[in-house]
C-alpha cells in the first residue's frame, strides 16, 4: 500500500497533472500521411475558416489525390488563391461555399473557378457565411435543422437545404430553417497543439471551432508548433478544439501561407503577415489554365511535402513576413518620403469622393440615428467604414465600433494594409469571437443596432444586390456574408461604381435582399430610398458641366428610370485630411486610383 502524503511535495505530486506522453497516444504525424490515413475518395471535406486558414492542408490534399479523380465535396466559407488547384486538378466535384474567387488584397473573380463552375465540371451550391456556420452548428449540436434570418427574399432561398416553417409557438411568423451540415473530416489550422491534439486556435475564430464538432470522423489539424501540455494549459482560453475531436495533428509552420496568422503575446509562436508577392504570383498565374498548371507543378506537385514548400519560400522571405507582424510594424510602411508624397497629391477623383461620401453616410447613420455597430464589408465599402469610424471616434467622441464577419469587434485599422482581415489590425480589437457572434448577434440579433456597408456587383432600384451570377448564367463570386448582413442588419449602405451594367432594372440573381438597404453610393452620386425606391439625392459635380448636364450623364449611366429627389444637392469636396487617411489605408493603391497626373498637382 502506498504511503499517504505527509508533506507539501508529496501532496503536490498527488494532484499533479500527468506528464507529457504519459498516455502514449501521440497524434502527431506528417501532413501528407495524415491525409492518406484519414481521407477517402468521395468524402465531404470542410476547410475551416478563421484567422488561421488551412492552406497547407489544401495543398497536401492536391498532392495526395492528384490524378485520382477522388470526387470530393468541398465545404468552405471561401475558396481562394492556391485553392483553385482543387478544381484544376479535379480534386473537387462539388462545392458548398459562400465565396469563390480572390479576396486579397481586393475581391474579384477567379477565372479558373469560373471556368470549372460554368462548364459543369464542378457543381456549386451557393451559401452565405452565417448560414454555412448555422448549418455546421446544427450538425455539431445534433439538431435536425437550424433557424436563420438569412436567405428569405433572395435566390438562395431556392436551395434544397432551406425551408420556411410556421412558428410552433403561435406568433404567426414564418421561420427560415436550414438542414444540418455534417462533414466527414474538417481541416483546421491552429497556432499550436500538444501531442494529444488539443488545438490552440488563432483568434478570431470564424467557424473553425464549431465545425470541429460537426465532422463525423473528426479533425485533421495543422499547427504552427507542437508544444507541451503546460503551454496548452496556460492558454486554455484559446483551446477551442479538444483532443477527443482530433484525428491527427501535423506541425506545419507557415501553414496559412500565403495568408497570415495572428499570435497573441506570450504564446511564443511567431505571427506573420500576408505574402503580397505570393498573391500577386497566384493571381497572374490564374489568368490562364496553362500558367496556373505551371504554378501548381512548381509549388504544389513539384514539392514532396509542406516542409519542402517552406524551404522553397526561403528564410529571408519568411523572416520578412514575420518581421512585419508586430503591432507597431505598420509604421515601417509609412516612410517619411511616402507620407510626403501622399500629402502632396492635389485634388481627388470620383472613386475617392465615392468612398468619402459613403463614409459620410455611415457617420450620419451613427450620429443622427444612433447606430452603434458598423459592419465593414470588403472592398471600397471597407475603406469607407474605416474612415467613418476613425472620424467618429477621434473627432466627435462617438464610440461606434467596427465589426468584421469572421469575428472582429472594436478594431481600429492601421495604415499600409487595406485587406479587411489583415492581422496587423487584430491587436486593436476589443473582442475577437466568431462568425455567429458577429453576423448572428452584433449585426442581426435581438439587440442589433448595426449600420452595415457593403459592395454591390449589381443592384436594382429596390436595393436588391447580385454578386453571384450573370444574366447568361456565368458564376461571379457568391455572397460571403452579404446576404446575412442585408437580411439582418438594422440598415445597410451599398457601394458600387455606376454603369448601366451595375445599376439594373432587373437582377438575374438576388444574392442579397434589399429591404434593409436604405442608401446607395456610386462614383456619380448618392441615392436614398423614397417610397421604397432609390432617388438621387446628391450628385458629384463634373468639370465644366451644369447641374442639369451632370444629372443627364447620371441618367445615361443608370439602368432603371432615374428618380431625382427634391432634396437633390451637390456633394461637398472631401477634406484633405480624409483623403490622406484614405490613401494611407490603401498605401499600395490596391483599391483607389490616385493617378500620376494628380500626384504632379492636377486637381479636380
Automatic annotation (TrEMBL):
Query: Gene3D superfamilies given for it?
Result: 3.30.30.40, Glutaconate Coenzyme A-transferase
Do you know which InterPro entries this protein is assigned to?
A: CoA_trans_fam_I, NagB/RpiA_transferase-like
Q: Which GO terms describe its molecular function?
A: CoA-transferase activity
SMART domains recorded: CoA_trans
- Name the domain of life: Bacteria
Protein's name in the database: Glutaconate CoA-transferase
Amino acid at each position: 500500500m502506498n504511503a499517504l502524503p505527509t508533506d507539501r511535495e508529496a501532496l503536490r505530486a498527488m494532484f499533479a497533472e500527468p506528464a507529457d506522453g504519459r498516455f502514449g497516444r501521440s497524434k502527431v504525424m506528417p501532413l501528407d500521411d495524415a491525409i492518406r490515413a484519414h481521407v477517402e475518395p468521395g468524402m465531404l471535406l470542410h476547410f475551416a475558416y478563421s484567422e488561421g486558414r488551412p492552406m497547407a492542408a489544401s495543398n497536401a490534399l492536391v498532392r495526395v489525390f492528384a490524378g485520382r479523380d477522388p470526387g470530393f465535396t468541398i465545404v468552405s466559407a471561401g475558396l481562394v488563391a492556391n485553392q483553385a488547384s482543387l478544381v484544376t486538378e479535379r480534386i473537387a466535384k462539388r462545392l458548398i461555399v459562400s465565396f469563390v474567387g480572390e479576396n486579397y488584397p481586393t475581391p474579384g473573380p477567379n477565372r479558373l473557378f469560373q471556368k470549372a463552375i460554368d462548364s459543369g465540371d464542378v457543381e456549386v451550391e451557393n451559401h452565405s457565411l452565417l448560414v454555412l456556420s448555422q448549418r455546421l452548428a446544427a450538425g455539431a449540436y445534433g439538431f435536425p435543422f437550424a433557424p436563420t434570418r438569412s436567405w428569405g427574399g433572395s435566390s438562395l432561398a431556392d436551395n434544397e437545404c432551406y425551408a420556411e416553417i410556421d412558428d410552433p409557438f403561435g406568433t404567426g411568423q414564418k421561420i427560415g430553417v436550414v438542414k444540418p451540415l455534417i462533414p466527414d473530416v474538417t481541416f483546421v489550422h491552429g497556432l499550436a497543439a500538444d501531442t494529444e491534439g488539443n488545438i490552440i486556435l488563432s483568434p478570431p475564430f470564424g467557424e473553425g471551432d464549431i465545425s470541429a464538432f460537426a465532422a463525423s470522423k473528426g479533425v485533421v489539424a495543422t499547427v504552427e508548433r507542437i508544444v507541451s501540455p503546460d503551454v496548452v494549459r496556460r492558454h486554455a482560453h484559446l483551446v477551442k478544439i479538444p483532443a477527443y475531436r482530433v484525428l491527427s495533428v501535423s506541425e506545419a509552420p507557415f501553414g496559412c501561407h500565403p495568408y497570415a496568422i495572428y499570435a497573441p503575446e506570450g504564446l511564443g509562436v511567431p505571427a506573420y503577415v500576408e505574402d503580397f508577392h505570393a498573391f500577386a504570383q497566384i493571381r497572374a498565374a490564374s489568368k490562364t489554365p496553362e500558367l496556373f498548371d505551371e504554378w501548381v507543378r512548381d509549388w504544389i506537385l513539384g514539392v514532396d511535402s509542406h516542409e519542402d514548400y517552406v524551404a522553397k519560400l526561403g528564410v529571408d522571405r519568411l523572416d520578412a513576413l514575420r518581421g512585419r507582424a508586430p503591432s507597431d510594424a505598420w509604421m515601417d510602411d509609412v516612410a517619411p518620403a511616402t507620407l510626403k508624397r501622399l500629402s502632396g497629391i492635389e485634388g481627388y477623383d470620383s472613386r475617392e469622393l465615392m468612398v468619402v461620401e459613403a463614409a459620410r453616410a455611415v457617420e450620419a447613420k451613427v450620429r443622427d440615428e444612433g447606430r452603434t455597430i458598423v459592419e465593414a464589408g470588403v472592398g471600397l465599402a471597407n475603406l469607407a467604414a474605416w474612415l467613418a469610424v476613425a472620424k467618429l471616434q477621434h473627432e466627435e467622441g462617438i464610440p461606434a465600433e467596427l465589426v468584421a464577419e469572421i469575428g472582429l469587434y472594436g478594431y481600429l485599422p492601421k495604415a499600409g494594409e487595406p485587406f479587411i482581415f489583415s492581422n496587423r489590425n487584430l491587436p486593436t480589437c476589443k473582442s475577437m469571437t466568431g462568425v455567429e457572434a458577429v453576423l448572428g448577434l452584433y449585426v442581426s440579433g435581438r439587440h442589433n443596432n448595426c449600420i452595415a456597408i457593403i459592395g454591390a456587383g449589381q443592384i436594382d432600384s429596390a436595393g436588391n444586390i447580385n454578386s453571384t451570377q450573370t444574366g447568361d448564367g456565368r458564376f461571379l463570386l457568391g455572397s460571403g456574408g452579404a446576404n446575412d448582413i442585408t437580411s439582418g442588419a438594422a440598415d445597410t449602405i451599398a457601394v458600387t461604381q455606376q454603369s448601366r451594367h451595375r445599376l439594373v432594372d432587373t437582377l438575374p440573381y438576388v444574392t442579397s435582399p434589399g429591404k434593409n438597404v436604405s442608401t446607395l453610393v456610386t462614383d456619380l452620386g448618392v441615392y436614398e430610398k423614397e417610397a421604397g425606391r432609390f432617388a438621387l439625392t446628391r450628385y458629384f459635380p463634373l468639370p465644366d458641366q451644369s447641374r442639369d448636364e451632370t444629372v443627364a450623364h447620371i441618367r445615361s449611366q443608370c439602368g432603371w428610370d432615374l428618380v431625382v429627389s427634391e432634396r437633390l444637392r451637390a456633394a461637398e469636396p472631401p477634406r484633405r485630411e480624409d483623403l490622406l487617411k484614405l490613401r494611407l489605408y490603401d498605401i499600395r493603391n490596391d483599391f483607389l486610383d490616385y493617378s500620376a497626373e494628380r500626384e504632379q498637382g492636377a486637381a479636380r
